[in-house]
Amino acid sequence: MPVTTSKDTSQLLRIYLNDHLAGSTGGVNLARRLAAQHRGTPAGPALERVAVDIAEDREALLAIMKELDIPVSRYKSVLTWIGERLGRLKLNGRLLRRSPLSSVLELEMMMLGANGKAAGWRALRTAQVVDVDRLDELLERADQQSSTLEVLRVRAAAEVFSTD
After folding, report:
1. Which are the contacts of 161, defined by CB distance < 8 A and separation ≥ 6?
2. Which domain holds residue 54?
3. pTM for the predicted model, two decimal places
4. Does residue 1 lie in a domain region?
5. What is the CATH number of the domain that holds 156?
6. Which candidate, 154, 163, 152, places its Cα nearest to that of 37?
7. Residues near 20 by Cβ (< 8 Å), separated by ≥ 6?
8. Are 148 and 45 in contact (CB under 8 A)?
9. Segment 84-135, tens digit of pLDDT
10. Total domains in the fold of the chain
């Protein structure tokens, strides 16, 4: 492995955390939209809780960045926001209305996001750059989100792909 200087480490941490912040921006938007789409359904309350948690996780990341004196790269968050909006245009079998497949794919994206977020918290924990107890709490919440999303994803897939 190449040796890094403290300047390199600082720059790499800035890039890494801003990449996670950009991902969390897209995750918050997707989580809120998914929760709104499922309001009034059995999945609604769980998705609402996940959306709130993801927004809180984004705030926790911002607090960590502030604590580490890492500036926010706004352009990455804007690009992610645009990408999330463009992702809505995917071909999913329906042109003018939401496809049942949309929920399955969006839940899978949310799971990927929760797992990626957990990987980020673990990386910070390993590097010991911030309070590990706080990171342990964030890790536990990310794992819970992933578990909740998996249950909802499997249920949605069963509904969409059932041959009954």
Report:
1. none
2. 6-161
3. 0.84
4. no
5. 1.20.1260
6. 152
7. 61, 116, 117, 120
8. no
9. 555 555 555 445 567 778 899 999 999 999 999 999 999 999 998 899 999 9
10. 1
Count of positions (residues) in the chain: 164
97 inside domain: yes
Distance CA 32, CA 34 (A): 5
Alpha-helical regions (H) of 38-131: 44-67, 74-87, 100-127
Token code pair at residue 147: 């578990």
Q: Say how many C-beta atoms besides its own lie within 10 A of residue 126's C-beta.
A: 10
Residue type, 50: V
CA distances (Å), 142 to each of 35, 39, 79, 147, in order? Answer: 17, 22, 24, 9
Scan for tokens 């390199």, then name that residue.
8
Asked if 125 contacts 132 with a C-beta cutoff of 8 angstroms, the reply is yes
Give the distance between the most distant pair of CA atoms in the chain.
61
* Residue 22: DSSP 8-state: H
C-beta atoms surrounding 115 within 10 Å:
15
Q: Are 145 and 54 in contact (CB under 8 A)?
A: yes
- Quick check: is 29 in a domain? yes
